[in-house]
Design a protein that fits this description.
By secondary structure, the chain is mostly helical. It folds into 2 domains: 68 residues, no CATH class; 31 residues. It is 75% helix and 0% strand. The protein contains 3 helices and no strands. The relative contact order is 0.05.
Length: 111
């Protein structure tokens, strides 16, 4: 694994078996133990980052679930009934009116 740029020295203590396995991997690959360790750390960082992202998403979903349960409790168990099609139509109509008004304002300023 060829890397460029500045590197930072880190001293770590390995179990004898860990060092032995790393040395075997490095020898088979024709690389240094340091290079193999850098690759392993890079892979760990990527994996950990993805795991952290999933954990954040799961926590957000849990908060949504708790919020929903709280809303149901406040409403005596009755769910909120929303006509999504009607709501979207109203939002679109409102946006269309805003765009038309902006176009009319622009036309008035140009004349």
């Amino acid at each position: 694994m060829a890397t460029t740029g500045q590197k930072y020295r880190a001293q770590i203590l390995l179990e004898p078996e860990q060092h032995k396995k790393l040395a075997e991997i490095a020898t088979r690959a024709g690389r240094s133990v340091s290079d193999v360790v850098r690759e392993a750390v890079a892979e760990y960082v990527v994996t950990r980052t993805h795991e952290d992202q999933w954990e954040r998403r799961l926590r957000a979903l849990e908060r949504i679930k708790q919020h929903r349960e709280e809303m149901l409790r406040e409403r005596g168990g009755k769910p909120i009934e929303v006509d999504l099609v009607k709501m979207l139509d109203e939002i679109r109509e409102e946006r269309d009116n805003e765009l038309l008004a902006a176009r009319e304002d622009l036309a008035r300023h140009r004349s």
